[in-house]
Amino acid sequence: MKREDRITELLSKDMNNPWEMDRRDFMRKLGGGLIIAFAVSDMTLLGSCAAEADEKGGVNAYLKIGQDGRVTLFTGKIEMGQGPITSLPMMLADELDVNLESVDIIMGDTLLCPYDQGTYGSLSTRKYGQAMRAAAAEAKAILLKMAAAELSTNNSQLVPEQLQVIDGIVSLKTDNTRNISYADLTQGKEILETVTGKPSMKKASEMKVMGNSRLHVDAELKVTGQAKYSGDMKLPGMMFARIVRPPSLGAKMLSIDTSGAEAIEGVEIVEAGDMVAVIHESRDIADVAISKVKAEWEEETMEVDDKNIFDHLVKNGTEVRELKTKGSLDKGKENSTQNFSQEYHDPYIAHAPIENHTATAVFEGEKLKIWASCQTPYPTQEDVAEALGISKENVRMMQIFTGGGFGGKIYNPQATEVALLAQKTKKPIQLTWTREEEFMFDRLRPAATIIIESGLDADGKIAMWDYQLYAGGRRGATTFYDIPNQLTNQNNAPRNVTLHPFHTGAWRGPSNNTNTFARESHMELMAAAAGKDALQFRLDHLEKDEKMTKVLKAGAEKFGWTPAKGPSGRGYGIACGIDAGTYVAVFVEIDVDKASGHVQVRRAVVSQNMGLVVNPQGVIIQAEGCVIMGLGYTLTEEIEFENRKMLTRNFDTYEIPKFSWTPQIEVVLIDAQDDPPQGGGEPAIICMGGAVANAIFDATGARLYQQPLTPARILEALAKA
Amino acid sequence: MIETIQLELNGTPTKLEIDPSTILMWALRNELGLTGTKFGCGLGFCGSCTILLDDEPVRSCMLAVSDAAGKKLTTIEGLAKNGELHPVQKAFIKNDAQQCGYCTPGMILNAVGLLLKNPEPSRKEVIEGMEENLCRCGTYGRIIESIQMAGIEMKGGVKI
After folding, report:
1. Residue extents of the structural domains in chain A
2. Given CB atoms, is A170 within the 8 Å cutoff of chain B?
3. Second label for A433, Cα 20 to 30 Å away, from A151, A229, A469, A658?
4. What's the CATH number of domain A230-298+357-432, 3.40.640.10, 3.40.1190.10, 3.30.1330.40, 3.30.365.10?
């Protein structure tokens, strides 16, 4: 199908979509003006993102220029604190040359916005944002052509090159009194356009909005309590649901007695799918009712717990996938004068957003509306439609603010649960998971074991590197250090083996936190053995990597790093890595209380090269968030379990970072404004574990090989040091 | 079971016809439509449901409606006066002290309670006063700065 046909089909689908709007209704709803639907699927800069969009209809963005001159962006991306509600309009305003204040953004509404695979993987700016910039640049080109025709007279035929745009007003470069606004140009018109594949996006020197800090535009809504999250919806006749849950994952219900709950006035028992739920018009009473339900269960046993899991992962990691190989390990061993073998462990951890998985659903005739705290409105729409056996067009996800995601809201079983209950009862239903449900049904960061064998030659250079990863993901697994003989393998369980006792998934900087902890710990283990400074040892293995060298040197300068052989007693630590296209290094200074094992991180310097920085303040805030959130997986976070029973139930036993942990944080951004933008929400978090583990070694001479680096483990390591 | 509970809610004398054992957080959210008060953990560990009761920050998930009887109750919706945001709210905006925003109302109310008792807290005192309010996005540093900035305005210093 040709691109033009695809767009027409998609638009006509949307016009006839839920609520049976026809084309005129859709236009009326949008308030008239120019609507541009952009297919960007054949642009090489989009990569896999494009392939996905293409499959779903080929349109990534709608822009609308209204008769009032306001520009509206319709995007499938969502806002969960990471800032696209501010940064995407900045990119759009700059490329279109309109005032930022005239740009509105509609996010994640599956009726109004084009398909998007989800908000994760630090893709919003680096993939979608780039596509949208191209779309905006193309829109500007179309508008300039229209303006040239409008402003031409019999005596002077104009071409776009003679025109300029300032704040949405097109005028002659030589005479700005001959002008016309975008709004006047587009009055009453409809145009559908496709991106040519050769968009002329602005160079850094031409940018007026991008590169300048902006405060988050949703701040006032959030500080006044007006920002709506999915549990804030209140619908007439709405009921609150609680679902009967098993004592452990995978347990099968043998019998159930709901008589105690049924005895409470107004309680209804609902069976839908595999679920039994209680509903009531008051959440308090639903909570009481669920406590009166008695059920017997047959539990599954896996004979794993939080202690033996690491051996379990190695034992079952029988399917070997080679990720990278270079030179010969045997030759490397021959050249080695010092050999190192070390096993690193990383446990299951939870996303633990402060907003639990929540959804509100209502049927209006055959049409289902859902407000869900989620990162993936479109895939969730498909999941819900499939579970209910209804067509996707009859499900509308209405995205509002999401109270933190971090990868944990890519999957949204709560949306399916609430939809099934609404379908069965024909009533509006709200479901807010309890904190206990949030821990139990979270898709945890998988536990992982990493075994590294390495060797140093007589000059103190790494001669060989053998990296065996069990159960962890491959993001960040291969090393960027220049090592002549190396092998990286991912050792997975066969498909028919249930490896993990819980659901696992992507946790901010997926698997790169684990891999960077192991790699960077091991680097400093060798640096100390070689009697070398930790920074210099890295630079010695990055001679061909100018980008990482520059990031490390810039960070070291800001930090005030001076060379020393570890352990120096100063409590300094470094880790660096590559994530979502961004090169990042973190330097920390810590205090270790040798009596209690308590670690206090005094300051952290983040240095990163992330290409184009759209909103510098937004980037700095994300890096600060990475440092603070990263201290959680580094120092305290660990799921406790036996078999498939979750023992971690609330924040009393699952300690996330607190105010008193907050270090002084400085962020260095390498100037690369003419390079494409890379990830910003995840990269810095990957370095926290390695940097702090290295700082503990530098402070005390004790090295830890298992995250989190708890006081008990520190005291144990100190006793051995 | 339904009783009349009287209290001053966000500056307005209010009579509620309600089961007095209703959890205060759910009553505010579901009966009174004050959804700025958030549910996070249900056991008083996270602080996202923090409100002010007679100017004292409390966890509304751990209280019954009857606990608020006869008292002055302030939620995030009642903090702005005469259309002007409270200094803590203004300082949060100025410092970009919120990300997802879900813990923000509880943070702000806990901070207001802290500043009412100690208008000029040191960094250490802010941390001690805020320690049990949890944020997952990692905004603590900016919140600490905001509270100190707001304290200065509240005692008649620099306007934000």
Report:
1. 3-201, 230-298+357-432, 309-348+444-720
2. no
3. A658
4. 3.30.365.10
Q: Does A105 touch chain B (CB under 8 A)?
A: no
Instruction: Give the residue carrying structure tokens 């962006």.
Output: A73
Q: Which of A403, A406, A652 sits opposite B45 (nearest CB)?
A: A652
Higher-confidence position of A274 and A621: A621
CATH top class, domain A3-201? alpha beta
Residue in B with minimal Cα distance to A235: B30
Q: Which of A78, A87, A222, A601 is the mutation pick for testing B, counting most B CBs within 10 A?
A: A222
pTM: 0.94
Distances (CA, A) of B40 to A438, A656, B62: 10, 13, 12
Residue A429, C-beta contacts closer than 8 angstroms, at least 6 positions apart: A238, A239, A240, A241, A279, A360, A361, A362, A418, A421, A422
Give residue limits of the domains in chain B. 3-78, 87-154
CATH code that applies to domain B87-154? 1.10.150.120
Bridge partners of residue A170, in order along the sequence: A165, A180
The pLDDT of residue A155 is 87
Give the chain A residue nearest B135 (alpha carbons). A354
Contact A70, A104 (CB under 8 A): yes
Cβ–Cβ contact A265 with B under 8 A? no
pLDDT per residue as tens digits for the range A646-666: 999 999 999 999 999 999 999
Tell me what pLDDT residue A22 has.
40
Of the CATH numbers 3.30.365.10, 3.40.50.2300, 3.50.50.60, 1.10.1200.10, which one belongs to the domain with range A309-348+444-720? 3.30.365.10
Across the interface, which of A218, A224, A658 has its CB nearest the CB of B131? Answer: A658
Question: Out of B21, B34, B42, whose CB is closest to A435?
Answer: B42
Q: Quick: pLDDT tens for A313-371.
A: 999 999 999 999 999 999 999 999 999 999 999 999 999 999 999 999 999 999 999 99
Using DSSP's 3-state secondary structure scheme, residue A492 falls into strand
Q: How far apart are CA B77 and CA B28, in angstroms?
A: 11
pLDDT in tens, A535-582: 999 999 999 999 999 999 999 999 999 999 999 999 999 999 999 999
Q: Is A309-348+444-720 in the same CATH topology as A230-298+357-432?
A: yes
Residue the block writes with tokens 């520190």: A714
CATH T-level topology, domain B3-78:
Ubiquitin-like (UB roll) (3.10.20)
